[in-house]
Amino acid sequence: MSAGLGWYARRVARMSPAEVIWRARDHAVQAAWSRRQVRPGQVAAGPALPAGERRFTAVLPPEVAKLVPAEASAAVLAAADQLLRGEWEVLGVVRTDMVQPDWFHDPVTGRRAPADRYAFRINHRSETQTGNVKQIWEISRLQHLTLLATAWFLSRDEAYARRVADQLRSWSEENPFLSGVNWTSGIEIGIRLISLTWIRRLLDEWPEVADTFEHDELIVRQIRWHQQYLSAFRSRGSSANNHVIAEAAGQLAASCAFPWFAESDRWRLESARLLERELVRNTFPSGIDRELATDYQCFVAELGLLAAIEAEAAGHPLSTAAWQRLCAMVDSGAALLDERLCPPRQGDGDEGRALLLDAPAANRWPSLLALGAALFGRPDWWPRISPDASSVIIGAMPGAAHQITGRPVTRPWQFPDAGMTVLRTTGDREPEIWCRCDGGPHGFLSIAAHAHADALSVEVRHGGVDVLADPGTYCYHGEPEWRSYFRSTIAHNTVELNGQNQSSEGGPFLWLRHANAREIDVQDIGDAVEWTAEHDGYLALDPPARHRRTVRLDRACRTVDIVDEIRGGRHDIRLAFHLGPEVEAEMDGACAVLKWSRASASGSARLELPQLLRWTLHRAETDPILGWYSSGLGRRVPAVTLLGQGRSAPDEPLITRLEFLDVGTTTERFLYAPAMTRYAVNPLVTEAPENHMEAR
What we know:
- The chain is 33% helix and 19% strand.
- It contains 18 helices and 25 strands.
- α3 crosses α6, α14 packs across α15 (365-376) and α15 (365-376) runs parallel beside α16 (389-395).
- Mean pLDDT is 91; it is low at 663-696.
């Protein structure tokens, strides 16, 4: 109990007075609404237009299904057939119970979450109460049903539509208003409304669709209940991150598609205003998401686009400014991708998607870019993207296409407002060397819920292979020691001092003190490109210290030099370099020879490490945790971590060189002196005044 009270005290401390007042109001309303709970099996009335006057808006044009590429269509049907057999992968767990799913069962812990308890009396953060709640929420987003509805849309096979109708009825009966864990989070309710909207749209020509929606009083009540919930409760203040976008997008989509209630116009106006305001607050002008978690940038862009398209089709368009910001999110995402169309792995990622019309894929960015190309057109610098089912179907919505002016004419590589820079090789010389440098703020809002303690970290890829890798996220709920590790400083390719994180952790989605970084100098002179930044996360040490890092990509020599300086006394230091799971390493003192093999991207490299530190190799260790890589939530595999330990020394930089050996370079050159010399005389490096860090 004391630990729980401690968390609440820390959480309240990160709130503004206005947020505390709002949350007190929400708790009072939640207590009052206990009288409105509908229990399973209980009949409840809900005012709506008479059944004969309910109309679904904005159906798809005829013949759209025939425009979906054959390969994409085949993949959808194969995934749908797997679902008909009851098989579905959910966050790393293969479920075999999807013919008649238990909407409250967590296959990870084996627990069953409360189904009839009043929603606001369930602590969904408690694994003992709910199990791994992400597993339960994921299938209740009903996105497996949007996939089945797409399969019907493409094939007209009755089995797909029938399964959708049966499971919609099952979910609605077992999850009445405010009963059970599936009513405890607004983001889940918003996403579920988007799913319901698109299920109805995709099944529009199915003979029984009206009986499943317009004429089914329980489904009509569910659509109203969902919107009542979002109208009364929304994420505010320190929680107004991607959650509020999902809440506003779901409300806007449903109020436009199902205008069946006396409150529909009010809900539409309120949610449109909220969405436009929060899209601006949640993103930098460049389009980079302020949570600085690339996975969530894709998620927020999808949510915003779906809601904007729905409003356009209903005759209530969003502003030009909102469409411009959405386009910027897609353009900036396109600029970040490596040659294999993979994004940075910065910050948290939980594979969240706004809508599922295609066979599931771990990397959703190609699909988002395909939709962006359908809506906004494809600039010449974009990677080439093949259309998929989502881009064809969503792009066919009335009024979806938009002409946006002022888009980048060449591929951006610097995003100063977000402190993100991508160094990469150019031209026809392959494989591509891609390097992301992190020199921005810690995260978004006072709790920075999805941030990692990764200031000045780097990711380096060669031909799309993770060489110096960001290990990922792995888990949100349960396994707190793993949650802490994957967010920690030592789990990233950066410097840790005195055994402390750069930012102070207060809980699994709570940071108490934020390290802020700032870029000092970034320059591209053709054959080489260089980035310098520093952060303030260690100013509380005795004596105070700053970490400054310079990263230089020499395109001609195909080397990456990393120079670390600790300014401010002597401290215990650990410098970690995490390798991707495909990379093998052999250590020889302060040198590692790296090798990896992939059908079209085999390679090798020499990693010369700072000799001032003692270097050890770690893999798949658990006490303490070290040497792991997570490709997605619920998944982890062993990977090599190279760890250097020692004491920092003023005026003695730590110099690392990564030399790729794919173009006839030799492993026998002595590399420390050239790197040190270059650092000392390089005109690109600009000194910054020793003033206080600028919090951004």
